[in-house]
Design brief:
- Helices cover 40% and strands 20% of the residues.
- The longest helix has 24 residues.
- The relative contact order is 0.11.
- By secondary structure, it is an alpha+beta fold.
- Helix 12 links the parallel strand 12 and strand 13.
- It is elongated.
- The protein is built from 15 helices and 16 strands.
- It has 2 domains: 246 residues, BirA Bifunctional Protein, domain 2 (2-Layer Sandwich); 101 residues, Rossmann fold (3-Layer(aba) Sandwich), CATH 3.40.50.
- The structure holds adenosine monophosphate (AMP).
- Adenosine monophosphate binds next to strand 6, strand 10, strand 11 and helix 11.
């Protein structure tokens, strides 16, 4: 039996959700531009080793979740499960590091992970993120975190919950890793199968295991803050001081380790609560990375970045009524009254579009009542009524569909008349947007 269903874990985005997703991307892009970031558009696929090496052999993503296939030339290709490794590959391929540093790049597009689909978790989903490369400092880390928080505030979220932790430098991580392996070795027999693998590949990940019994055991594990080198500790507190001075609330979460191998020093996640307490998972995750670019054959440059899940941002915005203002209808609905004025109505429609007004018309004679229903359905602001009698005198009726006010305008000065009518409305409109973003 042929399967014409959508691929498991994928979803079609249409109607209000499509408008909402594009709106979110536009606001996030505008936030990035305020911070001096420029967009980069990278391929959706890379040679598998980019992710194996970049994202890391120890990560769940590389071990279990990649869409990997051989192309017809027998090359192993992977659909990107995340952007950072591919963006680093692009920086190296195009020698972008040879220009002015730091490089500040943002990106957006679909990502693919073979995960168990559930609320807020898909197999093809959309990410928006940034990378700031070539300035290794607590201030660069803080700036990136500020961007993540203010971008979400620009979307209208008020209770942005920032969780933050430091994984320390390489020495810290090596010492801490050893301490964790030692501690968990004594308990591993009673832990879940995933943890049995994690202890070999990525013992830090045991700390964010979701199995309750494992969480209990993890409570007794050594704490990373006791292993931070002096330099890492100083750096972490510098970052915290800067974001604190910017008025951003945070919570230090010692179990926050992030699933990807490349992080060092500061890591963070942002959680937002839905009014109905639905748990879509973290909306944003990121952190500092040290050896990633060098590991992919580039120069020894550090970076910091984050990625947001757009489906989760959308769902939270929808639940919090932050998208109610974007469902805008057409400006004009042109109504031919009777068969004889269909040509005129079509010409007027085309003219209105050329003046820059979104305009719809039924393209066929409809009853007057039916046309008003359509106009309402389309969310039209005004109806332009094209009558046989009025056409002879070069006159149209325009009706404000909200106030029901109606007046006559001359066809000859259609553009000026429309500009006059819409002028006031548009000023209001801009004012509204401005308020919303503040
Ligand atoms: P990560 O780098 O894994 O933390 O991913 C960054 C962000 O992408 C997360 O905070 C989520 O918002 C989003 N995300 C990750 N995986 C998925 C998924 N399977 N479906 C939807 N969103 C996801």
């Amino acid at each position: 039996m042929p399967n014409y269903q959508p691929v498991k874990g994928t979803h079609d985005i249409y109607g209000k959700e499509a408008i909402g997703m594009r709106y979110i991307e536009a606001v996030l892009g505008a936030a990035c531009e305020l911070y001096g970031y420029k967009e980069i558009i990278v391929p959706s696929m890379e040679y598998t080793e980019v992710f194996a090496r970049g994202t890391g052999e120890g990560s769940d993503i590389v071990r279990k979740e990649m869409y990997t296939f051989l192309d017809k030339g027998d090359r192993s290709i992977t659909l990107r499960p995340e952007f950072t490794a591919g963006v680093m590959r692009a920086i190296i391929s195009n020698k972008l590091y040879a220009g002015d540093l730091p490089l500040k790049l943002y990106y957006q597009g679909p990502a693919f992970r073979y995960e168990r689909p559930q609320l807020g978790r898909y197999r093809q989903f959309h990410q928006f993120g940034v990378e700031e490369v070539g300035l290794d400092s607590s201030r660069a880390d803080a700036e990136c975190i500020c961007l993540a928080v203010s971008a979400l505030q620009m979307l209208g979220f008020e209770n942005v919950k920032l969780k933050i932790n430091s994984l320390g430098d390489n020495e810290t991580r090596a010492a801490y890793r050893e301490a964790l392996v030692k501690y968990f070795s004594e308990h591993i027999d009673e832990m879940c199968d995933d943890c049995k693998e994690r202890i070999k590949l990525n013992p830090l990940r045991i700390l964010d295991c979701k199995v309750e019994h494992d969480q209990e055991i993890a409570k007794g594990a050594p704490r990373i803050k006791d292993y931070l080198s002096e330099a890492s500790e100083k750096r972490f507190y510098e970052t915290l001081n800067i974001i604190n001075a910017m008025g951003i609330d945070y919570e230090i979460d010692e179990n926050l380790v992030r699933g990807l191998d490349y992080y060092s020093e500061v890591v963070f996640e942002i959680h937002l609560t839905s009014p109905e307490n639905k748990d879509y998972g973290a909306v944003c995750g990121g952190g500092h990375y040290g050896g990633l670019i060098k590991g992919l054959g580039g120069p020894d440059l550090a970076g910091v970045g984050f990625a947001m899940g757009l489906e989760r941002v959308y769902s939270l915005m929808e639940d919090s009524h932050l998208l109610d203002h974007i469902e805008e209808g057409v400006d004009l609905y042109v109504m031919p009254v009777g068969d004889k004025v269909l040509d005129e109505a079509f010409e007027i429609t085309m003219a209105c579009r050329s003046f820059g007004y979104s305009t719809e018309t039924p393209l066929a004679a409809l009853k007057f009542g039916a046309m008003f229903k359509k106009a309402e359905h389309l969310g039209a602001k005004y109806a332009l009524i094209v009558g046989e009698e009025e056409m002879i005198h070069g006159i149209l009726k325009i009706k404000n569909l909200q106030s029901q006010e109606q007046k006559e305008i001359s066809l000859e000065n259609l553009q000026e008349e429309l500009d006059k009518i819409f002028h006031e409305g548009h000023e209001e409109h801009h004012h509204h947007c401005h308020c919303h973003e503040e």
